[in-house]
Amino acid sequence: MFIRQRIDAFVKLGKILENLPKEKQQEWVTQAYNHNTWFSQSSVETALKGIVRLLKEKSLTQWLAAYPITEPEKPLKVGVIMAGNIPLVGFHDFMTVLLSGHPLYAKLSSQDAFLPKVIASLLTEVEPEFASMIHFVESLKDVDAVIATGSDNSARYFEYYFSKFPNIIRKNRTSVAVLSGKETEEDLKALGGDILTYFGLGCRNVSKLYLPEGFDLVPLLKVMEPLGIEAIDNHKYANNYDYNKSIYLVNKVEHLDNGYVLFTANEALVSPVGVVYYEYYQSEESLKEKLQENQAKIQCVVSREAWLPGSFSFGKAQFPEVSDYADGVDTMKFLIDLKK
């Protein structure tokens, strides 16, 4: 199967997802939620919307034009251990492996075992030749290379177990927002989405705010209320919010609370579900130094109109471009360079 044929298949997949009948989408939402109650309707819809954006013909063609993709003389078995923290979080790896021409051996997370198989089924309907290239497996045996995403703890296991294979091992990361004090109400609403989409469970969710001295957080708490109301309807999110609130109250930890999200000063990057950490910075130079120090733990940075170099605009954290690789590691180059 030639690369153009593979691209065309994914473009067609994107069009199918974009025009998916409401009743079919609702069926998927119900099934996904039954497997994992973190996968709400809005979470699944947002994930599908993000995939549709990736599968535009112009985006795929421009992305792949940067690589010398040829048909592999000896296609290698690429094992992919997929995370399950948000719906279809492993799709980019799924797509990249197949576009590279290598067969995929995917070990799905038990938290996201339904949606990837539905997407794979649609893709093979569009292009039957993919059927022999897609394998869902219980364990990775007899593979030639590995891409694994997990926690810091599981990464240590992956690094030991797969050390003899070419590999990409991803660890815990989170995302942060940098505010300047010039943000509008619309900016703050968009930032609220970066924080609460997927209930804050993704590595591209903002869990930490860097604020200029004297910044007033109250307007952000107010504009986040509609999103918070939706989030608190999920019993798992509500349990986390209630638990962390009780801990702060008992331990007399200073915090702000709009009834749905807690904000507290903390120098750590990763906050618990239902909590956002914040920290003040005194100068742009000191801020950049802080971000550089934590570079290995930050997936992305958001700021107003992406004023900070290398950042995304507010509201764009969950909608990366197809060339925005997780952890900044070029997965396609890794796959093209594989040799038996």
TrEMBL record:
Keyword entries, A-Z: NADP
One protein family per Pfam: LuxC
Source domain of life: Bacteria
GO BP annotations, alphabetical order: bioluminescence
Molecular functions per Gene Ontology: acyl-CoA dehydrogenase activity
InterPro entries, sorted: CoA_reduct_LuxC
The protein's name in its UniProt record: Acyl-CoA reductase
The species this protein was found in: Rapidithrix thailandica
Upper taxonomic lineage: Bacteria, Pseudomonadati, Bacteroidota, Cytophagia, Cytophagales
